[in-house]
Write a structure and sequence with these properties.
The complex is a heterodimer. By secondary structure, chain A is an alpha+beta fold. Chain A has 19 helices and eleven strands. In chain B, a hairpin with a 2-residue loop joins strand 8 and strand 9. The chains are: A alpha+beta, B alpha/beta.
């Protein structure tokens, strides 16, 4: 019996991080529901055991149902019949298995029939499912639309729609339009308020909508006539049962074939306003996007795990020159760095998930009782950390998933280029992760503020103080040097005080500080469990070399050089 | 609950994962060295029982098993999948029971649970492969039985219609209730564990398990009675010990042989009917085929 949770020891390791106790206490509000619901935990240990047991069920479904279905889902995909999406029967089988196991509504409160789990185990479920079939993790992951409804919608909407998610209804977020992709401020889909019926109606077109024909969709629309920017946009909830949206086409994509990407036509579609008018993009979509970015990170780590395993297996089985190819230095080096990047992305992802959990948990708690001063400080601190760590992990994990899939395919040689091995699918599936929910370039735009306001830098000092094990001090000293190198380079750019130079080097700066943060996290993992030492060591040495390269480039490029890059405009 | 469905299940050694320590030197099974699992066909039986429960309002599924205290594991497992309650028959005096004595004990326990409407059990257990316990239990209860069930076609409070899988085809049978049904592995697999039930029942425990752990059990059963797994001994089911254990078991083991397969020689066959006929007869006589 395949089980994608039990066969991966790192998952249990991250589930048992020291900060989990705090997260559980906040989420369970000191176990206030323990006598009210027979499935509510009694204490921290009980809660964490629940997460493990439920992830074990999801791991079994991933290993026994979803993974075996992945190949046929990729080959055949969903269908468009009478302007409606029909999932591939195997995709439907996957979904039914999860509904049968009663694991839907994982993060929703118990009063909406949810499991009341923190974000972290949900992110983990997403990783497990993505490893089995990345395309299916889109459909699974979109239940975090429910999270946004829970956070911002009226009580009436919550009471009506949240239990539906727990019962297995699907979600979608309809944001993108033909002329509004990265720039969502340009959204044009029109929302009109009809006073006589006291209802909103939506008209227009959405494009590239993942799982577009979902049961419940959150739609970004222009509610304020005459406006042209983000402040005229509001968020609406559309219920598929109203049958007022047509799916014009399902996109023919390079990868994630099982996940229907739709073009939608709204024709007088009745909709409910979520939260307040004009806050659609500025507040709600930002929250929705941050959750989705963590979802893509989980998808990336899942793909990376699958790709690493495929590469490892092939390298052991494939004999050339009389021995398995894993014994040749170029191959084992690739596998070793793949593993380090995989552990790197995973540790940064669960760190981010913990930050999100603490601040969101405290936010919900503040509705139930006044927070103490300490809690208020925590809320502020972790909200800020979540804001900057989310683009950071989206950037790193999606780029690493691509690199790991690339290297794994390379290990397969000619066979990897054929459709005979899963790596070919994984390689295509990985390619979307650094594009959607904001390209890597846009993640840098969001993350660079964490560089300039020193949020990341302050965390580096905090991490450094955690590494106390005497045998890890040599590695730590490399990180101390990397940090001074970063400080030097950052000061140089800051002193130049030129926005364009900063933008030009932003990605390098974000990656430099990201490398240092990840290195510390891996070192801390190694301090908790020696099995992570190899990845820590590898990651620190390679990223030290990479940071040195970046620092060299930044210090050698004069402002004139940066400007001269613009010559490309005039070249034919 | 007006409609009672009992599932008979057994915890068995996982014969698919046998290691070299599986047999002791004297040729008997070394149970301690084997991982144990829910007998696979009993899980199919549980699924069919749960499907009946899905169809009939106010019905309950009760898991009944006989074995050591450790067999509580399969009761918990059944609760995770949707069973409502479990009973463990455990008593030293049950030890050594063959199929006849086992079906006697089970039938006495079922009588204690009476009135029962339906009984499901796996066709056979992977450790003994006898397929006798189900039919013998039905006989002792004096109720109809349907063996080799593959599909639940229909059920109501007075009858059940079942598709049977036979060697040379299928048969559809309708029976009055109460009735005992043995379920084939070709029937639908057991549904996945239900997340909320896992969280609800993971601490379900029997009295002897709690005593072994020296925990204070009074509070637990007081506040959450559904967490109590009932244990029954010989007296609880009003059984007569002469029909139990070794004394109640006419099956006697004559000899146990440790068979090690070795390829010692090759049989060379000529390409003619005579040799092929000889080969077929050898295979049939040695029970390799047929």
């Amino acid at each position: 019996m395949e089980n994608f949770f039990s066969d991966n020891k790192s998952l249990k390791f991250h589930l048992n991080h020291p900060l989990m106790e705090k997260i559980v206490r906040i989420k369970e509000n000191d176990f206030s529901e323990k006598d009210q619901y027979d499935y509510a935990p009694q204490d921290v240990e009980d809660a964490i055991e629940n997460y493990e047991k439920i992830l074990e069920i999801i791991g079994e479904i991933a290993g026994e149902v979803i993974a075996p279905n992945a190949e046929i889902v990729d080959a055949e995909g969903p269908q468009l019949i009478n302007n409606e999406v029909h999932y591939h029967p195997a995709t439907q089988e996957n979904y039914n298995a999860l509904v049968e196991a009663n694991v839907m509504g994982m993060t929703l409160p118990r009063k909406y029939q949810g499991l009341n789990f923190p974000i972290l185990p949900f992110v983990m479920s997403n990783e497990i499912i993505a490893r089995a079939d990345a395309s299916f993790s889109n459909i699974w992951g979109l239940q975090d639309c429910a999270e946004t409804i829970n956070e911002f919608a009226s009580q009436e909407i919550k009471d009506k729609f949240l239990p539906l998610f727990s019962q297995g209804k699907t979600g979608a977020m309809a944001l993108t339009e033909p002329d509004a992709g990265s720039d969502l401020q340009a959204v044009q889909l029109k929302a009109t308020y009809d006073e006589s019926s006291d209802k909103w109606y939506l008209n227009g077109v959405k494009r590239f909508i993942t799982n577009g024909d979902a049961d419940i969709s959150l739609v970004l629309a222009r509610s304020e006539e005459g406006t042209t920017d983000g402040r005229g946009l509001s968020l609406f909830l559309y219920d598929r049962r109203d049958k007022a949206v047509k799916v014009r086409r399902i996109e023919n994509k390079m990868g994630i074939h099982g996940s229907p990407t739709c073009e939608l036509v709204f024709k007088n579609a009745p909709a409910l306003l979520v939260g307040q008018r004009k806050l659609g993009l500025i507040k709600y979509v930002m929250s929705l996007m941050n959750a989705a970015r963590l979802g893509v990170a989980a998808q990336s780590v899942g793909i990376a795990e699958a790709a690493y395993r495929e590469g490892y297996k092939y390298a052991q089985e494939r004999f050339q020159f009389g021995k398995p190819i894993i014994q040749f230095p170029p191959v084992y080096e690739m596998l070793n760095t793949m593993k380090a990047k995989l552990d790197a992305a995973r540790t940064l992802m669960y760190e981010t998930a913990r930050f999100v959990d603490i601040y969101k948990g405290l936010n919900y708690l503040s509705e139930k009782r006044p927070l103490s001063q300490n809690e208020k400080d925590d809320l502020k601190k972790y909200q800020k950390l979540a804001e900057y760590y989310t683009p950071l992990i989206k950037l790193f994990s999606s780029e690493f998933a691509n690199q790991i899939a690339y290297d794994s395919l390379q290990i397969h040689g000619g066979s990897g280029y054929m459709k005979d091995y899963p790596i070919e699918r994984l390689y295509r599936d990985a390619r979307i992760t650094n594009i959607y929910e904001g390209t890597s370039q846009l993640q840098v735009v969001a993350a660079i503020r964490g560089v300039t306001n020193n949020t990341f830098r302050e965390m580096v000092d905090e991490y450094a103080s955690l590494i106390t094990h005497p045998e890890l001090q040599d590695l730590k000293s490399i990180l101390v040097k990397m940090t001074s190198q970063y400080d030097y380079v950052f000061t140089k750019i800051k002193d130049a005080a030129n926005q364009e130079t900063l933008d030009f080097h932003a990605r390098r700066l974000v990656e430099m500080i990201g490398n240092i943060i990840i290195s510390y996290l891996l070192l801390y993992d190694a301090q908790r469990n020696i099995e992570f030492l190899n990845s820590a060591q590898t990651y620190i040495k390679y990223s030290n070399a990479q940071n040195t390269q970046y620092a060299g480039l930044i210090t050698s490029l004069e402002e004139d050089d940066v400007c001269s890059c613009k010559n490309i405009f005039d070249l034919n | 609950m007006s409609f009672k469905i009992v599932v008979l299940a057994k915890q068995v050694p996982d014969t698919a994962n046998v290691t070299q320590d599986a047999m002791k030197e004297d040729g008997t099974v070394n149970r301690a060295a084997l991982p144990v699992i829910f007998n696979p066909e009993d899980l199919h039986a549980l699924e069919m029982a749960l499907r009946v429960k899905d169809k009939i309002k106010d019905s309950e599924v009760i898991l009944l098993t006989m074995g050591p205290v450790r067999a509580n594991e399969i009761i918990r497992e059944a609760l995770f999948h949707g069973a409502d309650k479990g009973y463990l028959l455990t008593d030293r005096r049950f030890a050594g029971s063959d199929t006849l004595a086992t079906s006697y004990a089970l039938s006495m326990a079922i009588k204690k649970l009476w009135p029962v409407n339906l009984i499901f059990t796996g066709r056979q257990a992977i450790d003994g492969d006898t397929a006798q316990v189900g039919p013998q239990t039905a006989e002792k209860l004096g109720i109809p039985q349907i063996t080799y069930a593959e599909e639940l076609i229909d059920v109501d409070t007075s009858s059940i219609t079942i598709k049977r899988r036979l060697d040379r085809g299928i048969e559809i049978i309708k029976s009055t209730l109460p009735c005992l049904i043995t379920v084939n592995h070709s029937s639908p697999r057991c549904r996945f564990r239900n997340a909320k039930l896992v969280m609800k029942y993971k601490k379900a425990t029997s009295m002897s398990e709690l005593q072994d752990r020296n925990e204070d059990y009074y509070d637990l059963f007081e506040s959450k009675p559904y967490l109590k797994i009932d244990e029954w001994g010989v007296e609880d089911i009003n059984a007569d010990i002469k029909w139990l254990g070794l004394s109640g078991s006419p099956t006697k083991v004559k000899k146990i042989e440790n068979v090690v397969f070795k390829a010692k020689e090759n049989l060379v066959l000529a390409d003619n009917d005579n040799d092929i006929d000889k080969l077929m007869k050898t295979l049939i006589n040695s029970h390799i085929i047929g």
